[in-house]
Amino acid sequence: MGILRTAAEGGAEGSMKGSHASFHPPPLYSKMATVDYDSSADPEMDLTSDEELEREAEGFKEQGNAYYVKKEYAEAFNFYTKAIDLCPKNASYYGNRAATLMMLSRYREALEDSQQAVRLDDTFMKGHMREGKCHLLLGNAMAASRCFQKVLELEPDNSQAQQELKNAESILEFERMAEISFEKRDFRMVVFCMDRALESASACHRFKVLKAECLALLGRYPEAQSVASDILRMDSTNGDALYVRGLCLYYEDCIDKAVQFFIQALRMAPDHEKARLACRNAKALKAKKEEGNKAFKEGSFEEAYDLYSEALTIDPNNIKTNAKLYCNRATVGSKLNKLEQAIEDCTKAIKLDETYIKAYLRRAQCYMDTEQYEEAVRDYEKVYQTEKTKEHKNLLKNAQLELKKSKRKDYYKVLGVDKNATEDEIKKAYRKRALMHHPDRHSGASAEVQKEEEKKFKEVGEAFTVLSDPKKKSRYDSGHDLEDDDMNMDFDANNIFKAFFGGPGGFSFEASGPGNFFFQFG
User: Fold this and answer.
1) If we measure between CA atoms, which residue out of 446, 470, 458 comes closest to residue 496?
2) Which CATH number is 282-407 given?
3) What is the C-alpha to C-alpha distance for residues 11 and 522, in angstroms, rounded to an integer?
4) 12, 116, 122, 272: least CB-packed within 10 angstroms?
5) Hey, what CATH class is 204-271 in?
6) Phi, psi values for residue 488, rounded to 5°
7) In this predicted model, what pLDDT tens digit does every residue of 123-168 receive, in sequence order?
8) How far apart (Å, rounded) are the C-alpha atoms in residues 153 and 417?
9) Are 209 and 244 in contact (CB under 8 A)?
10) Farthest CA pair distance, the chain
11) pLDDT digits (tens, 9 = 90+) for 223-247
């Protein structure tokens, strides 16, 4: 109320005495005994009637002043209006009613009364002051400056006018900064400038709408909605506020409702270019996304991938919808075995919307498919912290298990077989790898090579021992540490080799030249 009370400072003007009192001319005629006259044509009677009206108007004004002092502004307004009806040429009555309207936050009406007051009396300082404050509150800083300069012409030392002139200049500077920042897409700075400007221009819908639009562009939808709704409560036909409401819905992926608001905004303001563009983008985005979904359901993954990519180019400002589009494209990418691209798309989706659980789940699965288990565990932990469901708990446990398993020797990789390999495939793989790394085969190699091949030969034997034993294999596949299970894990690669190939004399390496061997079975 600080600004509002200043806007009506001085309250209602006092009595009619002073520079704004009505002028009462002396009677033009005196009554003459020798002359008969028609009393209905006597100017004295008209003057008496005017005086009575002025006295009655002055009485209404005094009553208005009394209510104003008691802060009963609605009643004060009624009595000032009665005074104006009786004496519509009195500047101070309009000034009083303007002060009252300002206290009722009816600034446009107050502006009209202030303007009428100074039209009737251009030297009415309080009238110019109130007009300037109304302009300032409504965001017209240029017009406000002219009014305050007029006050200073009348009263050069008026400190209040000097301060209000500075406020008007500050608003003009904040407007300039906001315009530059909007072009640079620095929406936070625009919000800051509008907040500062609204400190003096609290009733300016234009500043509020710009702030709301930038809040929407920053993804702060509830705040933007609140500002726009406040404006619409006061002015349901405000096309800018309708546009902002639609923009919030559009950015929250409620496209059908958004289009309705854009259409309504265009009805109120047919030349509203932003509403027209947003409406067109909303319709195009919805259509392209639906085409992509249809192609995906039909199994046309390449087509779906291209359609989602096209949709992503329509409106980079639509954060929530674009997050969904990136996640959809990631799903298609995983189907096309573009796993790294799918991970990248999920990351982009999460960057746009850090609360997007589906994107975390999709990325975690892609990490699992590419055996990046630590990353998968991190994503599943994030999901489980947000939504503690049984399904998410199981996904996390499975990722943790795979991470644990990944830190052990991968016996399947040692043998070069798939995790679903059959018993025969495991035996064949062992035969091949054991012969490949047998120390006798590398007896002529350098000491370093012999050492490396011996190590690999032992790992092959160890892998075969575990994977050829159903019980050990089951425990190994379940992620258990076999040494902790009291199982016999004392591997002798040579004994395993001999047992596999039939014991002593069953197999030998013979040289056929430097570095060449052939195998002989007994």
Assistant:
1) 458
2) 1.25.40.10
3) 121
4) 122
5) mainly alpha
6) -70, 105
7) 999 999 999 999 999 999 999 999 999 999 999 999 999 999 999 9
8) 96
9) yes
10) 170
11) 999 999 999 998 899 999 999 999 9
